[in-house]
User: What shape does this take?
Amino acid sequence: MFGFLKRKFRKKIARIEITGAIGASTRTRVLEALEFVEENKFPALLLRIDSPGGTVGDSQEIYIALKRLRERANIKVVASFGNISASGGVYIGVGADYIVSNPGTITGSIGVILRGNNIEKLLDKIGISFKVIKSGAYKDILSFDRDITEEEREILQSLIDSSYLQFVETVAEGRKLSPATVRSFADGRVFTGEQALSLGLVDRLGTEEDARVWVSELAGLDPKNTKVFTIKPPKTFASKFLPNGSESAIARLQFETETSGMPLWMWQ
Assistant: This one.
């Protein structure tokens, strides 16, 4: 029975969506979906990305899993950039064989950002202060009740520079560009899909349907008769009761709270 189920997928294209901010929940869902693609022997994968990016480690793990899928299972992968595929979305996208972008897609934002909250003045106004006992001089770096020192700024900048170098090297490898070429546009700026094509960041301009046709041809399938199987995330318990759109807003708020003080590959 299970053999039959696997055989029925061998003439279909798997489709995975990456939407919204990329964090731990996105990583878990996408890695499980990629495992499903390999286990069921799909010949091709259409990866739809509509994301401003997210956390560094989660983006890296998805990228690595995507590369392993291509190398180990010989599955053809085409990424389709939607309204926005920036920063960590780009990082994941370069793990595909090819990238198709809409001309007006917002992409780029290759760089790293780290944000911390400083509410020292507010705490002073309401008379709240904190006593800190720490094992090292930098244990409370980016604490919200004080400004950072110059030494701490240098430490954090070194961290950002290391993460940035990893980003540049991965894009250079994935897109077959020199690191110097990537650095020429990897200064955090965003650009359109049309501009990305001229920079060598994407392969073609087109819709998701164009990407579907291309990945079908790469896998030796007939685009006219090949069906797409979308691997959907399971619905959460809360989604049964919340109005449309509110769950994504809550997820974004949770993401912002959880990632404060973390390096991000993310636009905005």
Q: What stands out?
A: The chain has one domain: 2-266. The mean pLDDT is 88. The longest helix spans residues 150-175.
